[in-house]
Amino acid sequence: MTDELGTELPRTMVVIPCLNEAAHIADLIAGLMPSAERLDMPILVVDGGSSDGTARLVEDVAACNPRVRLIRNPRRIQSAAVNMAVADHGEPYGYFIRIDAHGGYPDDYCDRLVEEAVRTGADSVVVAMKTAGDVPFQQATALAQNSPLGNGGSKHRAGASGRWIDHGHHALMSVAAFRAVGGYDESFSHNEDAELDHRLNVAGFQIWMTDRTFMTYFPRATPGALFRQYFAYGRGRARNVLKHRSVPKVRQMIPLLVAPAVAGALLAVVSLAAIVPAFVWMAACLAYGGWLALFRGERNGLLAGVSAMIMHLAWSAGFWLQLVSPEGKRSGAR
Length: 334
Known about the structure:
Layout: E1 12-18, H1 25-39, E2 43-47, H2 54-64, E3 68-72, H3 78-89, E4 95-98, E5 103-104, H4 109-120, E6 124-131, H5 136-145, H6 148-151, H7 155-158, E7 163-165, E8 169-174, H8 175-180, H9 192-202, E9 207-217, H10 223-244, H11 250-256, H12 258-264, H13 276-295, H14 301-324, H15 326-333
């Protein structure tokens, strides 16, 4: 297998961890199939016990296309899914590409990733993530997540020219580098990508952020689902801090103040001044949403401010609750 310049390309496989993705999985596989044919890649769908017919749909596709394989994942979580796929099927391959079942990808996504890995010599190639939505709340959340209000200026959210980076949205990785650091930590249900990137950096492996392709992510469509997701993200980040004795970045420290500010507002019965921090935060979020609506013409702008508030509060609450949990205290003691 060679590229257009005749350069030999390492063998690559696609890994799709999934759980209850019946609405997306068939179209996702169909969209990946042209590049799978061009690059001679198998597509491994690792199902975590779906109850909506996802596994049956994949079996139907696999019956007609030998490139597609269904793998059962009794651990359910994504980190275990990728570990299992690489451990059991990664031996002949130089790279694997991790695909989010709830995302959208350009037709040449896999091609560009492999080309970038060969061109740069990177051990991992990560991508910028754009967020889009269908229903109004999802669209508002996408507005927030695509803005500094929702992502804090995160480089793998904002996008920029190609460069070396310490963390990004996982796309392609060297099988050898993945195995060398022990794969994903399966005790992490969220934030496992950042935790793995920390170990890759410490071990001297290089992560390249490409500007030649990207993925589109579709956020949670309801306030409750968004809160639960970001609460889990916050817990995952706290576990990362405890495990590696790392210091949160400035863009992460600012949202950490939100849960204490909201909790402190309960003291307003003693002094009205206690409500000021929470009021300032809420006003800032709503003001930014108003700016999106009035000056950028975004019809869901005001709602984007509400989505940002949900994300901030959930992430902060999850972080602090993990930190003071018995598990967090034990990790802190160690």
